[in-house]
Amino acid sequence: MTRLRFFLLAPFFLLGCANEVREVVPPAPTPEPLCAEPLDLVFGSAESRTPLVGLSVAVDGSCNTYLAGMTEGPIDFGGGPVGETGAPFAFVAKLDPQGKHLWSRALPVGASFPGKDVIAVHAQGRVLVAGSLHADVDFGGGPLGGEYVRAEHPFLLELDADGHHVWSRRLHGNLPDDLDYEGNFHRAIEGVSFDAEGHFVITGRFLGHLDLGGVTLMSTPQISDPFFTNYKPDVFVARYDTSGGLVWAKRFGGDVSDFPAGLDVSPSGDTVVLYTQFSEMESAGEPAGLHVKRFSPGGDVVWSKVFEGSALDPFGGAVALSDDGGLVLGGQGILTWPGIGMFGEAFVGRIDSKGEPMLAASLTGGSAAVVSGVAPDGSGGIRAVGFFDDTLLVHGKAMASSSGGLDVFDAHLEWDDAANTTSTFGDATDEVALAMAGTKEGTRVIVGVRGPLVHDLNEHLSPYSKGSRIFLRRR
């Protein structure tokens, strides 16, 4: 584009000097923020089947958007169909600030995304995706190997800014037959996040043994009778350096079941993890409730809180660190904060830098209300996205009505309830928001699935498991 320059010619008198001609350069126009323009995109077809679990989104500093998820049948993100008909497959795609296709690729069948925060992007252009393997696969660096008799193994895959394979790794685990166990060993990375230096942290759940790169963890056995040992899911968290070397790894859990719900890492490397612990009164280990833990980059506990009587549905939750050292959290379930109150069927909350509760709100719908993504507001409030049916109530106050079926909400909750605002989108077709990524300009990128929604009896999610088209909205 040719830049136009305007010249102002006028006599300018100085003692002993001739007239001069000076160039007057107008001030440069303020550039529009890269993410200022809204987007409303849809991918897939009416015949597509996209699981509600695994769909994730990330945005880099140039406002490029990255999608990761799973679907059945080929899907076109603008560069031609990827994937094949016949089996569910995982995909990764990159779109430019205007939503145009840059690249997309299908991962080999046998790789899946069981989590809700399975993609992270670093400022240097590194793209990290993580999930679970059901078979020996080759992402581009050679077969990862492994045996998969009633067992799954977590994987990590780094791509460059153009979507090319950089490195890939399988985290090793044992087989149930090694312990004469008749059940399955499910292991998966369900969340991944970078810090500013390029170190990354992962979290997920596992049964049996899991080697995270030199440190092997073992999930808690349950002795149900003298002749049979059961294994229940525990939560793991691990931090790696910029080259993928393990820095530290930790296991959490009691004697019943534990479910990871959220992960975030600050630019300086602090890690916060959110998970639910279910346990019996007489069981050993950590108490039942919603656990929030914050670690230093070296793995030391900064603070650790358990909110007893609280729990998140295994569908998942969300957590995000704020610039003031605190965090916001949310999800579907019950949040009980002593001295403040009980919140549900969905909730959001804000915690200060010392782990003390500050602000919380209940969100309810007619028969469904789910918070699927949260972000801190600079003034101390909370941004939250999710979905509901019928009427959305915030603190018991009607804030929105569904246009039919399930609709998406985008809420801004503040200290003063009167200042709370909510916008919605959706029509008679169900729309379910599953993940959100924030931009440095303060806009939000929301991804989810559009109905009709179907229920797969083989899935644990209720009442819905799969939708058809994938939507992406920037607001």
Characterization of the model:
This is Lipoprotein. It comes from Polyangium spumosum. This protein is mainly beta and 475 residues long. It has a domain of 202 residues. 0% of the residues lie in helices and 50% in strands. The chain is built from no helices and 38 strands. Strands 26, 27, 28, 29, 30, 31, 32, 33 and 34 form a nine-stranded antiparallel β-sheet that branches. Strands 9, 10, 11, 12 and 13 form a five-stranded antiparallel β-sheet that branches. The N terminus is likely disordered.
Can you lay out the helices and strands and say which pair or pack?
Blueprint: E1 39-43, E2 50-51, E3 56-59, E4 65-71, E5 75-76, E6 81-82, E7 89-95, E8 101-106, E9 111-112, E10 119-121, E11 127-133, E12 153-159, E13 165-170, E14 188-194, E15 200-206, E16 209-211, E17 216-218, E18 221-225, E19 228-231, E20 234-240, E21 246-252, E22 257-265, E23 271-278, E24 289-295, E25 301-307, E26 311-321, E27 327-337, E28 341-343, E29 346-351, E30 357-364, E31 369-376, E32 382-394, E33 397-413, E34 421-425, E35 431-438, E36 444-450, E37 466-467, E38 470-474
Antiparallel strand pairs: 1-38, 2-37, 3-4, 4-7, 5-6, 7-8, 9-11, 10-11, 11-12, 12-13, 14-15, 15-20, 16-17, 18-19, 20-21, 22-23, 23-24, 24-25, 26-27, 27-28, 27-29, 29-30, 30-32, 31-32, 32-33, 33-34, 35-36, 36-38
Measured between the Cα atoms of the first and last residue, the distance is: 29 Å
The mean pLDDT is: 87
- By secondary-structure content and strand pairing, the structural class works out as mainly beta
Percent helix: under 10%
